[in-house]
Amino acid sequence: MMRQIVTTKNGGTEVLEVQESPDPQAKPGDVVVNVRAAGLNFADIMARQGLYPDGPAKPCVMGYEIAGVVESVGETVDRSLIGKPVVAMTHFGGQSEKVVVEERQLFPKPESLSFEEAAAVPVNYLTAWALLVVMGGLRKGESVLIHNAGGGVGLAALDIAKHIGATTYGTASPGKHDFLRERGLDHPIDYRNQDWLPALKQMTDGRGVELVIDPIGGGHWKKSYKALRTTGRLGMFGVSTASANGLKGKLKMVKAAAQMPRFHPLGLLGKNRGVFGLNLGHMWHEPEKVAEWVQEIMQGINDGWIRPHVDKVFPFDQAGAAHAYMEARKNIGKVVLVP
Ligand SMILES: NC(=O)c1ccc[n+]([C@@H]2O[C@H](COP(=O)([O-])OP(=O)(O)OC[C@H]3O[C@@H](n4cnc5c(N)ncnc54)[C@H](OP(=O)(O)O)[C@@H]3O)[C@@H](O)[C@H]2O)c1
Q1: Fewer CB under 10 Å: which end of the chain, C or N?
Q2: What's 164's domain CATH number?
Q3: pTM (2 d.p.)
Q4: Given the CA of residue 171, which atom of ligand 1 is nearest to it?
Q5: Residue 291: inside a domain, yes or no?
Q6: Tens digits of per-residue pLDDT, 24-38?
């Protein structure tokens, strides 16, 4: 038997339970990985709150990413993989002692990273790569505004933007600014105690920036659109503004939906602006594309400019505390769960 973090129903952190389940078996083409570390993502919190439409029906085991050691392999898979340290994305279910994944989903764990650091790579860096490089087309000499720069995706985006050679602006709670400066953020902006848009405009001589990545959503996307310079792009990839338990969360989601911008083609054309959305969880049918991004990210780890930062590691039986830590905005970078 193995242990898993089960989201038993919608609710507060009390709905999370560690439960036992039979060990998974590898079918042909699959491998079983003994999980050493599993990433926690904001989507896991919103799923628990009942605000994540992509989440599986409850009770369910969340978890999009793991690092661990191959325990067994199914028919057709090379047995020399057994015992190898690996990293993988999981289509839910990652917050388990053991997971089954298709062999093609695995990539070798970089030797320079601990299991916890390796589990912090897939979701954060693939999301940031897609936003900045693939869809955002960020170029050297351009400027980017990274919202929640101190979060998991935020720090990943910062590494990538610095590597590209862009000027970086980032919103974050003020307690995170010193750390962000150390990580290379050029211009931290306190968005909790002031309106960030006039502050950004002032820092950019009224022009704004070429790229904004916004996981807050709702009416905030309208504001981020206003922060774009000519030829600017807005990447929308989350609705964290709705995060809350129970009815409050549902009402916040309705409000966020009502306040979302409606972009008109002529408006975009007239202003030389672009807008796009990203959902990494809707990329499962494009494994070749994602594998290419993984190769670039692995190269960045080898070259030392991709530096996954694990803030705190929680054992599975403290999953509730891990969720609460993120919901209280205490995390700088990644929160990781270990069996
Ligand atoms: N579309 C995709 O493919 C995709 C993939 C990964 C993540 N995402 C989205 O990206 C965002 C960041 O995800 P993450 O996993 O890296 O988490 P994260 O940024 O580490 O999340 C926690 C941080 O978000 C900030 N925050 C903003 N509004 C918040 C709220 N209402 N409640 C709590 N924290 C809030 C806080 O930082 P401050 O100090 O800045 O307030 C907090 O520390 C989320 O919206 C997530 O859904 C989307």
Answers
A1: N
A2: 3.40.50.720
A3: 0.98
A4: 40
A5: no
A6: 999 999 999 999 999
